Amino acid sequence: MTPEELQEILDLGEDQELEFKSATGGFPKSSWETVSAFANTEGGTIFLGVVEQSLGFTIEGVRNPHSILKTFWDNHNNPQKLSHPVCRETDVSILTLSGKILVSIHIPRVVRQQRPVYINGNPLKGTFKRNYEGDYRCIEAEVKLMLRDAGDNALDGQILEGFTLDDLDSESLTAYRNRFVSRSPEHPFLAQDNREFLESLGGWRRDRSSELKGVTLAGLLMFGKERSLLDALPNYHLDYQEQLSNDPDVRWTYRLTLDGKWAPNLFNFYYRIYPRLVEDIEVPFALDETATRKEETHVHDALREALVNTLVHADHQTTRAITIIKRVDQFVFVNPGRLRIPRDQLYRGGMSDARNPNLLKMFQMLGLSEKAGSGFPKVLRAWREQSWLMPLVSEDLVLEGTMVGLPLVSMISEDVKQELKAVVGCSYSSLDELGRLILLLARGFNKIRNADIQPYCQQHPRDIGDRLKQFVGSGWLQKEGHGRGTQYRWPTLEEREYSSEHTSGSSEHTSGSSEHTSGSSEHTSGSSEHTSGSSEHTSGSSEHLRHSLQADLLQVAAPVRETKKISKTLVESTILKLCEQKWLTLRELAELLKRKPDTLRNHYITPMLKDERLQARMPNNPTHPRQAYRRGKTKNKT
């Protein structure tokens, strides 16, 4: 990494994969927790000699970088300190920034077979992971999950002692065989009895070394009865929801879960919900190679692939449920268990690491899943063909889960254009490709991070960060969190309505502000409280106000507006009257009352907010650029 690249990272300040530490006393001991956390999560880089503070970064430098690195390597290669080495020599470097020497240590994400990476010889107390707040110690369940996922044996190949063919739902197995014969009527598996048939699929197995034999976890998951499934997996849970109502009090319009009315195995779950997932998808007229009408599209293929992937890549031994949600504007697929390959590799395709290969085989035998590594590119193809917002895959690093969002939002539809225009106004036509992409992603997924945008474009993360900050300043996005936890949110309807009320036409007035400036001198000779020339107070807003404020507001403000010296009580009562029926910004109040914004904020607005005579439109974000005020519920004290 070059000093220039580091400076860009410091300027951006939003990355959970970076850690900055002071090294004035040598190699910091807390860095080993970060080494473990980075290795077990997404990887990252530790910078020694830089201190992260609330308002930015301080570059302290290190005095003896070679001594620090010797300490690092001595402990890195000591199994009593670190369970196994994770870095190569090329992962460590010494660089100079602003005349100070820094040490950079890159910690790669380890493959699942190496997890957990732990410190001090104790996996239960020395295993760490990374979230947006920093490093945290894993609980025992998380450690066991990593240990279980590290093995090369198929998780679903486990033989379940005490379980027999009687624990399988005969109707489910018969239905599977019927579908199998329809697809491959000459297949030799069809001549086998049920036990042999299950053995061929991986649903029954004999361990040659121990002579243990019986139903496998895959067999039970695919064909099991409800009671048998819960006996083997007490936390087993499937949840399909249709959230198709606009009423916020209606949580779902249809739901399928474990209720004792059906055998809730994966085979039945698939065939009960897949038709519901695709029932609203339009099928254009098209013929296949035999001149028969095609009854499915690539979107059908994509939803089938997403559903099967969710079922076969889940870690069914956790406490988390498999959850499938159908919304008006999006499909959501959630499974317990993190990705077993890097996310960028998933998007590229060509690689697969199935958590439950026997389950995958069972679905593939029915033609319901593609060959290894080609499934997700099919999803991307279908969404690209429809010009829909591209699917987003994300991992819950704390709960060890994976979420796939498939938005039904067109990147080019007139409805989307109109919604974007409602937020950005006349600036829509001047948005470039990156700007529109950011707004589309925020609209489609509600909350996004800088890292979520990067797979969709070629721009540098710093350029993306600059654009995000610009959109926050314009009121087009809402910022939440700070530092590595920063997210950008699509504005709520209330925020959008407020923005459209107060920003329309602002750009046209800003450019012509100089022609209005000369008139301000006649007002500046009075009290320090009495001016129209504040730095916060642009002539653009003045012009807009003259065209938009009702005459009665000007009349209410007249006693204060036309008097230089006046009592505090009268100013407060006038503010309350002005804010009786309408949200007003600080600038608008300053214009109406001809007072400095700083004076109004410090001497009137802030005290009146504290005693609830006023209420803020964005109470959780006092410095929001579109903040406004209205009369509160507390009676006027004046």
Automatic annotation (TrEMBL):
Residues 501-542 have a biased composition (Low complexity). Residues 14-131 form the Schlafen AlbA-2 domain. InterPro entries: RecG_C_sf, Schlafen_AlbA_2_dom, Schlafen_AlbA_2_dom_sf. This is Schlafen AlbA-2 domain-containing protein. Residues 480-546, 617-638 are annotated as: Disordered. Residues 627-638 have a biased composition (Basic residues). It holds the Pfam family SLFN_AlbA_2.
